[in-house]
Amino acid sequence: MKNIKINYHNINFDKEVPLPSNHSQTILSIKNIFANMSSLNIIKNKDKLNETIRGVINFSKNKDNFILFGTGGSNLGAKALINTLSGNDKIKIFFFDNIDPINFKNSINKINMQKTGFIIISKSGSTPETLSQFASMIEIFDQKNELEKFFNNCLIITEDKPSPLHNIAKEKNCTILAHEKDIGGRYSIFSNVGMVPAIIVGLDVSQIHQGAYDILSSVDTLEYFKLGQFFKFQNNNKKINSSVIMTYSDSLFYFGKWYLQLWAESIGKNNTGITSIHAVGTTDQHSQLQLYLDGPKDKFFTFITTDHGNKGYALHKKTMKDHNLDYLYNKTMGDLMQAEQQATIDTFKDNKFVFREIFVPEINEFSIGQLMALSIMETVASCCYFGVDPFNQPAVEQGKKLTPPINFKYIQNDYSHQTTNTECGMYCLFFIITWLTRKAHKSIMDKSHNKMIGGKRVKITFEELIKFWVME
After folding, report:
1. Are residues 245 and 272 in the same domain?
2. Alpha-carbon Rg for the chain in angstroms
3. Which of 176, 203, 230 is the last residue of a domain?
4. Roughly what angle, to the nearest 10 degrees, separates helices 253-267 and 76-83?
5. CA-to-CA distance for 81 and 74, rounded, in angstroms?
6. CA torsion 133→135→137→142, rounded to 10°?
7. CB neighbours of 1 closer than 8 A, spacing ≥ 6?
8. What are the Cα distances from residue 218, in Å, to 32, 222, 374, 437?
9. Is-contact 225 147, C-beta < 8 A?
């Protein structure tokens, strides 16, 4: 591994993390998974990356800014990459990952749409939140009689299969890039999902891939297995329930958010797993550090640090001297950041907390590629130690997929409704809104489902709920 340094503190792996006798076979199995992961192997395909670069450069012509619609893995990874520019991006991408109607409308109204490109990302092509955002824009441009212009300015990333998003894109001749079928959303950072926005803002995406390859090619160091080994096999008497990742740079803020999804959706299954928490240095020293140092000893800590020394604005010497602030005299803001970062680490070390420091000398394309590949490989390895599939998300899919048999039941005032999983989720969404006025519930029952009265089970479809809202 180039530049990046990983050091564990207050833990002796040989003595305190006893591994099972078949551990060497487990290592080989995990390495085999790494070798066959499309989300990692894609970094070796330079021709595909160059093709993407050419296509995105062509799409970006004559556009001043961009709007990206996508949620979860379709959004967080790209945010994390662009965040490394610390606001120094020349081309602005506005990310929308939620459907809060007021904030969405107010934010959209502030953007000049005339030279805006739209990036719509959904692996399945049927993500309700993303489709609603896309449909909102279609409505806006339809009212302006500018639909053709809008669709010409849309780049769609979705699987190459029939879906609402793919069908619209194909019908309206939008630019379409494939979302690889065998790469899940939270693992998609090195694919089109992460690279397209990174190319637009001017990041050197080849260096992102090079950083990831540096980690992937160093797999024989066994460094990527230690985190999972500690969580699964550490033999101290304290049960570790949480893993705090504290990033000492604003350039890594969205990396922390991306990491939360990667870890949570991968390992949180079968009533097992470790809860990941993201903290920000130095900000959360003033909000969370008291709990971490003096609260329950049920947490493991990862500090991601970098070199802040002699960076940023200089502090006014005379003011510091006149007010007896000698420790800040002749210093920069970066010097203070560096000192607080080191003080926190020394405090944890002196108080015998088990933690690790991941030191990155400089935050750039290469190092963010390293951090993301490291995180992916550690997550997959940890899942294997816990005996869970790192690539599925059954609890989430339970609310997404349209699957018989019917398995959701909602009871209200002697009425029993049963829906499929997808309808269930959307019904809940709409019913929460209409719950304040009982006429919504009464209208649906009385107008469309008279035979429901008396407690008989009748399915309310999503389409009927939409129809109700349109009429009301």
Report:
1. yes
2. 25
3. 203
4. 150
5. 13
6. -170
7. 214, 215, 218, 221, 223, 370
8. 14, 8, 10, 60
9. no
Domain enclosing residue 219, as ranges: 5-36+210-386
Same domain, 199 and 98: yes
Domain count, the chain: 3
One-letter identity of residue 177: L
* Separation of alpha carbons 105 and 103, rounded Å: 6
Cα distance between residue 399 and residue 408, in whole Å: 10
Q: Read off the pLDDT of residues 154-167 as tens digits, 9 standing for 90 and up.
A: 999 999 999 999 99
Give the pLDDT band of residue 399 (cuts 50, 70, 90).
low
First to last CA, the chain: 61
Q: Where are the alpha helices (DSSP H) in 352-461?
A: 365-386, 394-397, 421-434, 438-448
To which H or E segment does residue 34 belong? helix 23-35
Do 134 and 26 share a structural domain? no
Residue whose token pair is 């970006």: 60
Q: What is the pLDDT of residues 8-65, one digit of tens each?
A: 999 999 999 999 999 999 999 999 999 999 999 999 999 999 999 999 999 999 999 9
Of 139, 169, 203, the residue at which a domain comes to its end is 203
Q: DSSP 3-state assignment of 116?
A: strand
Q: How is residue 18 written in tokens?
A: 């006893």
Residue carrying structure tokens 């990206």: 68
Q: Cis (ω within 30 of 0) for the bond into 282?
A: yes
| Token pair recorded at residue 286 | 């003033």
Query: Among residues 15, 387, 382, which one has the least CA distance to residue 228?
Result: 382
Q: What is the pLDDT of residue 468?
A: 45
